[in-house]
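uS12 prolyl 3,4-dihydroxylase: structure, please.
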Amino acid sequence: MAAEKKNAAPPAASPDSTDDLQHTLKKARVAVHAVCDESIKANFAQGLFDDANVKQLAAAYEKSGPYLHTCIPALVDPTLLRAVRTEIEQHLVFTEKETDIYKVLQTGDLANIDGLPEEERSKLANLHRLRNALYSKTFRDFVSAVTDCGDLSCSKQDLSINSYTRGSHLLNHDDVIGTRRVSYILYLPDPQEWDPKFGGALELYPCVSKGTPDVAPTLVLPPKWNQFVMFTVQPGYSFHSVQEVIAPHDRLSISGWFHIPEEGEPGYVADASNPDAAPASLAQLEDDTKDVEYPFDEVSAETEDLTDADRQYLGEFMNAEYFKESNLEAINEKFGTDSTIQLVQFLKDEYAALLRPMFEAADERDGLAGGKAPLEHGAGVLPGWIVQGSPVKQRFMRVTEEPQENEPQEVTKLRELQNFFKSAQFRKWTYQVSGLASTHQRARARRFRPGLDYTLATYSNVSTVLDVTLCMTPPHECWAEGERGGYECYIATDEENDDPAVYRAAGNDSDTLLATQAGWNVLTMVMRDQGVMRFVKYVSALANGSRWDTTLEYLVANDEEEAAADDDNNAQ
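Here you go.
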């Protein structure tokens, strides 16, 4: 019987043929990678990835200041970028967002494009293409080579489109949140030349010490079509802001971050945090009562009744109606019910009439009147005035404690008011109307210049503070609805989320406890509990002039301290 024919086994591969196969596969992978790499590079400006250009950018980056950054004049293929801008204008919806630190129109996270229905995604094909190119390995390697930042996450995409229209702004911060490693901005304003007078420039700040930026920037980068700015996120150093846009033009940009690698990605480190890093700007929200730069002075509680001599002194400044016995009782009753009260025409007419023309003349003198502030940081800096920072928390002008040679007349008058606020007689009056005795106090006379000044939301680290603020801003319709800023706002902290990265929204009715618009000759008293946040909204360059005020803070005595003060007064 003939033997059955069996399938022959394949011949064993020789070592040489195996090597040939591996070599062929490797060449194929390299070829595919090269094709993919070139297809990615086609989305960018010609020559961007050339070795000579990368080396030149890296060398300039190492020498840049006030901190490490780079500014690339043309990043993206211009045809692609124009198509992206068209898609943005035609198919994306912007949401206005406003907090103590910014006012801007913004889209959602562009990482979510992949989840859109096919019909919607097809309308954003060029934007989708650009997003993928920005987070491709080719471009991430380029970013790493220029900044020497190490590996970047290949999975975490974090970007959105911002539209800065007239009145939009972003105040000083350092971008330190979570796992951010590199910040970037790609500019898409109208391709026509952007005039620096329109505002909207990126401002980079030097530091006077780690975590404390100077009050003014040393580098100002106006937006330009296809310009790309990036910097490594440097805790305590990478402070920047965006000037207010003051012209009826749209400063469009794509901004975002590259993040440190996540677990399972190349370059992942289990604990990549920097133990020497300064606190992020958002973590510096606590208003320390032991602040050596703005200390509280210990004072006697002054819980006794007003004397005739006290009333005579108060009458040099105040409207006499407010220290009549019957009115003291009515004010005290309302404050006891509401924990806040506003008193209009607080200064007597003769005194107020001296101040208003001084303030209006000062705004004219300094080029800050009529909604035409030039966004110049030196505006109004004259003898007797100090620009108060740090801008990560605040920027405004304050009156010096001691008189200065050649100081303007408004400074002298404001210092007089500041000293009046700190007087024992005024402290007696505040006790009569609030029922709150105090142990410490501090006061400042301030000017918030349009286009420059603000305070960010901070909270007290003690139980209760009594805020007393006299606003002396010359009346104008621009202040009525708060559209030009300058209002003071009290907001509740989020008990469920104490992450400092969560900004408190200005104007959110669920969080806003009290908002007072800038006004003329209005005294506001507020009992502020621990944790309640407070800020003065950035004064727009489009405002008619400065916000002027004198502010006083009392640390409220606890029951034991108040009882001791009563005993002392009874013994006298």
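Notes: The radius of gyration is 30 Å.
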